[in-house]
Write a structure and sequence with these properties.
It is found in: Membrane. By secondary structure, the chain is of the alpha/beta class. Helix content is 41%, strand content 16%.
């Protein structure tokens, strides 16, 4: 879910947002599963409430199946009853026309003039400071097809990179990484600075995965101890260095560190 704000903000329509920002109370009806948009809408778009399609659950887990696809104009009638919303904002689709026709004032978003409607980054309702890089592209049908076609080759490549990264000496692992397509750039690493204190050196990485400490360990050509969150057993096994998992409990993690 952490990557979704990146895509939502990128597809935000500038003219539609100008209308949106002038309203005081905001309610969203969407056929997209509510759990996929509610966090973004409330955090970035300051929405008061979200009515969307619900996903089927078993216990506390989603099955991925839709409980019932939301029909916007029916949901609006069920929410407001006989009252009419002041402003309706929707696309040019037939379903949205039925939806916004129930409002006192209606605006239709024209998706044809894409260039002039792109929201500049400096006008985002909230700065996009972080996005999760595990899904670095918008999963359009073509992009998704390319991903699945590339997936078998990636699995083989990853297995060889892991094996060579674990088994080979650091300098040979760097050479193999370069030959297999990994782009490495070292800056101020050679010669390696000697720590002035005997307690060691703390390196701060930007991501919660083990990739950063792995590349840092390879660049420094020495084993490190990685302290991170969300550490799975598989990564503990294949990591070529010692790993310590944190629990997000301040007292317990403080004692661990």
């Amino acid at each position: 879910m952490a990557v979704l704000p990146k895509f939502y903000l990128k597809n935000l329509n500038l003219q539609a947002y100008e209308v949106w920002s002038k309203t005081s109370s905001r309610l969203v009806f969407t056929s997209i599963p509510r759990v996929m948009v509610e966090g973004f809408l409330k955090e970035y778009m300051k929405v008061n409430d979200v009515v969307g399609t619900e996903l089927h659950t078993i216990g506390n887990r989603f099955t991925g199946l839709l409980s019932d696809l939301l029909v916007k104009h029916k949901a609006l009638k069920g929410y407001f009853g006989d009252k009419q919303p002041d402003v309706g904002l929707g696309s040019s689709s037939h379903h949205d026309h039925q939806f916004i026709s129930l409002c006192k004032e209606a605006y239709v978003v024209d998706g044809r003039n894409i260039q002039s409607s792109v929201m500049p980054r400096d006008k985002y309702p909230k700065p996009l400071i972080f996005h999760e890089g595990r899904l670095a592209f918008l999963p359009t049908p073509l992009e998704t097809l390319c991903m699945f076609l590339w997936l078998p080759f990636v699995i083989v490549l990853v297995i060889f990179r892991i094996l060579f990264g674990i088994c080979l000496p650091y300098l040979l692992a760097i050479l193999y990484g370069l030959l297999s397509g990994v782009q490495l750039r070292f800056q101020n690493c050679f010669p390696w600075p000697k720590p002035q204190h005997k307690n060691g050196v703390l390196y701060v990485c930007m991501h919660i995965t083990l990739l950063d400490p792995f590349f840092l360990s390879t660049a420094l050509c020495k084993p490190l101890t990685a302290v991170t969150y969300n550490l799975s057993k598989m990564f503990e096994i294949i990591a070529p260095f010692r790993t310590i998992g944190l629990t997000r409990d301040r007292k317990q993690d403080g004692e661990t560190m």
